[in-house]
UniProtKB/TrEMBL annotation:
Residues 1-22 form the signal peptide. This is Glycine zipper 2TM domain-containing protein. Its main location: membrane. It comes from the Bacteria. It comes from Cupriavidus oxalaticus. GO terms for cellular component: cell outer membrane. It is a lipid-anchor.
Length: 155
């Protein structure tokens, strides 16, 4: 019986890892989705006025909550008490495991980003937030590439 529970927990972990691995959206200025490739973009030039570090939180898949609940429920229910006590422990373990799994997924999905404020050559100001995969400095000349509501700042 214990081997079945361990096998079930391992299966849940494997499925959760697979589902979490499918969530690969990117806010990088160097990553284009298939729909964005080979599309014309508007190019504007300007100067960086300011930079602010931000955290970019990607969408949650629920895999962390699911995996944490399953693991917590199985672990607590199979090791604590018997009968109704085991059921209660399993429920409590599932709740606490779900909370821990959700927090872990949040941390994994958080990326370092930059909010870059640019004064365009025509005098207009723009602020673009993207992953911090390129270094920008105030006073630096940059390009803004825009298409379909998505704007990237590049050198």
């Amino acid at each position: 019986m214990n081997h079945q529970l361990r096998g079930g927990a391992l299966a849940v972990i494997a499925i959760a890892a697979l589902v979490a691995g499918c969530a690969t959206e990117s806010n990088s200025n160097s990553v284009y989705s298939t729909g964005q490739a080979q599309r014309e973009q508007t190019v504007r030039y300007g100067v960086v006025e300011g930079i602010r570090e931000v955290a970019i939180q990607r969408s949650q898949t629920g895999a962390g909550t699911l995996a944490g609940s399953a693991i917590g429920g199985i672990a607590a229910g199979s090791t604590i008490g018997s009968g109704n006590g085991a059921v209660a422990a399993g429920i409590l373990g599932a709740i606490l495991g779900g909370i821990a799994g959700s927090a872990a997924e949040n941390k994994v999905n958080e990326r370092r980003g930059l909010e870059i404020t640019v004064r365009l050559d025509n005098g207009e100001m723009r602020a673009i937030t993207q992953e911090a995969d390129e270094v920008f400095r105030p006073g630096e000349r940059v390009r803004l590439l825009s298409s379909g509501g998505v704007t990237r700042v590049t050198h």
